[in-house]
Amino acid sequence: MTTLADPAVRPPSAAAPPAPDGRIHVTKRDGSREPYDADRINRAIERATTGLADPIAKVTQIASELAITLFDGITSEQLDEAAIAVTVQNVKDDPAFDTIAARLLRKVIYKRVLGGYRTDVELALLHRARFPGYVRDAVEDRLLDARLAELFDLDALAAALDPGRDELLRYIGTVTMTNRYMITGRDRKPLEVPQYFWMRVAMGLSLNEADPTATALALYDAISRLEYLPAGSTLVNAGTAYPQLSNCFVIQMDDDIEHIATSVRNVMWLTKGTGGIGLSVTKLRSEGSPIRSNNTVSTGPIPFMHTIDSTLRAISRGGKKFGALCFYMENWHLDFGQFLDLRQNSGDPYRRTRTANTAVWISDEFMKRVAADEDWYLFDPAETPDLVELTGAAFSARYAQYVADAEAGRLRTFGRVRAREQYKQILVTLQTTSHPWLTWKDTINTRALNTNTGTIHLSNLCTEICLPQDRDTISVCNLASINLPVFLADGAGAAADGAGDLDWERMARAVRLAVRQLDNLIDITISSVPESERANADSRAVGLGMMGFTDIAERLGLAYDSPEAADLIDRVVEFVSWHAIDASADLAAERGAYPAFEGSGWSRGLVPFDTLAAVEADRGVPVEVDRTTRLDWDALRTKVSRGMRNSTLMAIAPTASIGLVAGTTPGLDPQFSQIFSRATSSGKFLEVNRNLVTDLQRLGLWENVRERLLAAQGDLSAIDEVPEHLKAVYRTSFQLSPYAFLEVAARAQKWIDQAISRNIYLADRSVDAMTDLYATAWRKGVKTTYYLHMMPRHTAEQSTVRVNKTENINATGSASGRPASAAPAPVATGGPARTGFAGFGAARKATTPSPAAPPSAAVPAVPAVPSVATEPPSGATVLDLADTEIVDGVACPVDPMERLQCESCQ
């Protein structure tokens, strides 16, 4: 049985012998054969071009390329897949081919789920007629929650289904939705079309409402229009028999064997339910620390981390991909040097993590010592247990006492290194392994409004969640993201800051509905871990984010690094934050405040903006961010002091997967390239920036420059005819100043009570530049950073199918065509152990980059549904991503957008 994700399409050599009459026959589903009808296929392609420019030329091009893929005996499914494949291969010439491919793919989905149809009217009638039966049958098969058949007016819901909204989905979005989120039967056959999927999710998030049908209709209307999207775990499980809907789980591991074992068990169960996990190991005593109960010494945290890393590979998330977790450690831990080495390729494999990520939890005290070029001391948590719980000035005072105790000989062991030396070691390791991510403990705790229940000891898998946790509490967050481009007015153009081109009233409705849906989720979701059930109910934490910022900036003609773009993100996030907080206050009046409200910053009438002053007062260093406000925050402060339904309201997640469904740029990220190949777990896709194509077509330039743009790997700066203002708007991630990423994050962060998953892109390997960059992030009040992407690691090779790869490898020693000797030289760090640097310096190894990737064959950027032909049509050009990194023994994608989709990253 073929599937959309991995079709078993046979090449001509594997085809049946030619028919005696020389004609091509198609094998139908029942095994019968009929002559290939070119006219019938052409009519189907013609219907898929409705409303597009120059449809006849497009039909002719697809049909002619399809003809060379055919062989006698080709199955009807293979024929569908081949038509889609040759269509997608033309996306590089015109993004309209993506629309055609998406329509052809959805037609396949419709036929498999609903059966045959002739017209759009008939398709709409099929949607409505078969929806109640779909729900009842799936409930009977125990795939869907029984309440879906009991609480809802299925006929009313069916009448609201609008298959016309499928036109909002691009090809990659349709494939992602199908492979990741839509349910299948026990026999793996598809049960849902896109609109069934949206309605199932809406129903699953309305189960606790007084009028579930009315709420489901409202939610369906918003998410099917892509105004906002719930996060991945919610989309996978909403309305199903196992509604584990929460997205992020944050755990602190205590320093005793019972809690370590409990934490491993909890990781297993949370991973099974598709949750992403953050896990702090700072409390675990260091290697060699005495264990008095049996008169032995500790092995330290590293072996336990390796055990959990193996668990992630053993328990796949929802049966779809490896478990995902990030370890956090504070950098005063005596074993921090070993923690830094966790992602290195070399060394003892039993002291490495091949799946889990790592992040460092950094104090203000450390950043100040880096600035002053002072020493930094490392301690065994068994001797300094209160440091984990202290933050800000209180941490600094207690840390200074432990330093004095160490120098006076009152501690069993300690380490000492220059703060700048450790800072450099962190950054060099980050550069060579993409880990550890840098996150700031005191900025997070001081700027939080929910720390009345305890200290925040870590963030989550993607660094945007900031919630307190302790031995008996696994903090939980629930996510959704506003899709900003949906709210652009038709024909929007460059305005002073883009404000006049956004439909603010419609956006406010979507924000308020998303907050209500997230609050519903908390009462509906289930978890097999009692510590997370209790935390979810007590804090009712939600994280509303957004995606598509770069998308709207481009459409408005704003360069990502311009003052106007910074003002735009400032205004948009302020607006979303104000309405999210106001909606939660309204829900508190309707449903009651969250149990831990009293004593929180909210109860004192504080909002996220107010925490800027608190940070400055505590650290004694100004926060370098614009302080402009536009909305009536004083009235809102009074309102929130009376009650809030949720302890947190906002967090900006990466949105790598749901961004594909929405057809927009992820989170706050810039464009990686204007044309590039994206490899996901659903297949490999060629991405072309539609905004750029539209602008070039408007100027009459697209036809003239597209081949050169492809040859330049999407670099617009290399094409003279393109106006300078467009070159500025379409600068890509490595062409922008990295300080622009921090300015955007800082402007957004002042309105957000949690954090932002903030990727950083650098065009060179200068450690000195990184040193100032990350210090600037701290000074601007940014709470966390996520992946660091280095341009030398992210180079896409562009070639045609006629390039002789063997000759290239023989000539250069590299499949990329670059000399093998061009690899960067190893970077040595560290140095001899300094006096008193016990247990750290002696164990330090020179840090070296990952070994170079071996030569590999070209990986053409073909679509997820490959062509039957052995080669693309004559003259076709593809992007070849021959450069991959060998990380942890597996080939990691070179493109940061691909990396966000790989099993280790999300």
TrEMBL record:
Q: Which UniProt keywords apply?
A: Allosteric enzyme, ATP-binding, Deoxyribonucleotide synthesis, Nucleotide-binding, Oxidoreductase
Q: One Pfam family, please name it.
A: ATP-cone
> Region annotation Disordered: residue ranges?
1-35
The protein's Enzyme Commission number: 1.17.4.1
Instruction: State any single GO MF term.
Output: ribonucleoside-diphosphate reductase activity, thioredoxin disulfide as acceptor
| Transmembrane is among the record's keywords | no
Q: Which residues form the ATP-cone domain?
A: 24-115
Q: Which GO terms describe its cellular component?
A: ribonucleoside-diphosphate reductase complex
Q: Name one GO biological process term.
A: deoxyribonucleotide biosynthetic process
Biased composition of type Low complexity is found at: 1-13
What this chain does, per the record? Answer: Provides the precursors necessary for DNA synthesis. Catalyzes the biosynthesis of deoxyribonucleotides from the corresponding ribonucleotides.
This protein's name:
Ribonucleoside-diphosphate reductase
Per the UniProt record, the source organism is Actinotalea fermentans
- Gene that this polypeptide is encoded by: nrdA
